[in-house]
């Protein structure tokens, strides 16, 4: 198990380094001069040269990359070319918003997808099971931003139950935080929950046809008890895989949802920095998102062995 963990951690570090190199190279070839952004269009050539030297842009790309990666390892994402403030401070504040939104949406998605997916599989030949499958298909087709606009129209504008946008800091109290997160979390979570429910249904249907489940029923267990005791754990592996994938998708989907609900998260920060051509900040945001996706994949790999003991034995 220790060898397997070390191997996965090594793969995580190597992938993160490769990803950082790709991000740095792609953004370094984007047209635009960060020194020009910092000083404005009226800057003299001498001032631009001095600014490039101060920002380290006159050094070779290899030296710039190593300096940037070294700063990342120390939590230093550089300084914004537009505001002159440390990027790490704003990144931490914005990441807090996105983390609350994505985790809330994921909890909601799983709370809806797992029971409905199991029910759709068990009652697949009945009207309610067919209806659940149809509803999940409809949910997949609805974009998150459209769901957000519909929720704002109904529950914020017409009924006035929830705010149409804005953010409440965690320090202001959990009820206020959840009240502001309710609509964006539902908009982001229900769409992804529809996707996950389809995989839950498929995984449960595959397990229901296995020999070990028929043997459990032959020993006297009811179909429901046999499924709960022996089937759901075996169906959890593909569900865990797609949940990890969808969690990464939520990080990207949060960009649109944050704009709809006026949340100052990583998605809004990314769009603002791209519009201002603040490439150092864009690099920082993209690297945080890439690192989050890689971390999610690592956690999913580790959870495989927790759910399925056979994987622990294979690793050993």
Automatic annotation (TrEMBL):
Pfam families from the UniProt entry: BPD_transp_1 (PF00528), BPD_transp_1_N (PF19300)
Species, as recorded: Pseudonocardia nematodicida
Keyword Transmembrane: yes
CDD domains linked to this entry: TM_PBP2
Protein name (Swiss-Prot/TrEMBL): ABC transporter permease
Family label: Belongs to the binding-protein-dependent transport system permease family.
PROSITE patterns: ABC_TM1 (PS50928)
UniProt KW keywords: Cell membrane, Membrane, Transmembrane, Transmembrane helix, Transport
Domain of life: Bacteria
Membrane topology: Multi-pass membrane protein
PANTHER family: DIPEPTIDE TRANSPORT SYSTEM PERMEASE PROTEIN DPPB-RELATED
Record field: transmembrane: 100-122, 134-157, 177-200, 235-261, 281-307
Record-annotated ABC transmembrane type-1 domain positions: 95-304
Keyword Cell membrane included in the entry's annotation: yes
SUPFAM superfamilies: MetI-like (SSF161098)
Lineage of the species this protein comes from: Bacteria, Bacillati, Actinomycetota, Actinomycetes, Pseudonocardiales
Localization per record: Cell membrane
Main location: membrane
């Amino acid at each position: 198990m220790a060898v397997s963990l070390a191997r996965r951690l090594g793969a995580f570090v190597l992938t993160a380094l490769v990803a950082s190199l790709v991000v740095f190279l792609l953004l370094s070839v984007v047209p635009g001069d960060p020194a020009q952004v910092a000083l404005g269009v009226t800057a003299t050539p001498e001032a631009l040269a001095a600014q490039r030297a101060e920002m380290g842009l006159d050094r070779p790309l290899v030296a710039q990359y190593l300096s940037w990666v070294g700063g990342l390892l120390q939590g230093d994402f550089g300084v914004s070319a537009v505001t002159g403030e440390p990027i790490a401070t704003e990144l931490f504040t914005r990441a807090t918003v996105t983390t609350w939104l994505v985790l809330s949406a994921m909890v909601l998605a799983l709370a809806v997808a797992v029971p409905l997916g199991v029910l759709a599989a068990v009652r697949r030949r009945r009207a309610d099971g067919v209806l659940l499958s149809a509803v999940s298909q409809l949910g997949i087709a609805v974009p998150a931003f459209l769901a957000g606009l519909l929720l704002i129209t109904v529950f914020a504008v017409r009924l006035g139950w929830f705010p149409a946008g804005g953010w409440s800091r965690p320090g202001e109290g959990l009820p206020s935080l959840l009240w502001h997160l309710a609509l964006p979390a539902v908009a982001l979570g229900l769409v992804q929950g529809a996707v996950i429910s389809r995989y839950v249904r498929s995984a449960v249907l595959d397990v229901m046809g296995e020999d070990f489940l028929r043997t459990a029923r032959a020993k006297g267990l009811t179909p429901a008890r046999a499924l709960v005791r022996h089937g759901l754990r075996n169906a959890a592996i593909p569900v865990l895989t797609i949940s990890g994938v969808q969690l990464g998708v939520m990080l990207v989907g949060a960009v649109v949802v944050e704009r709809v609900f006026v949340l100052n998260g990583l998605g809004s920060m990314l769009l603002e920095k791209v519009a201002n051509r603040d490439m150092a900040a864009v690099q920082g945001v993209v690297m945080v998102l890439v690192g989050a996706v890689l971390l999610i994949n690592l956690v999913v790999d580790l959870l495989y062995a927790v759910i399925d003991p056979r994987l622990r034995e294979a690793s050993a």
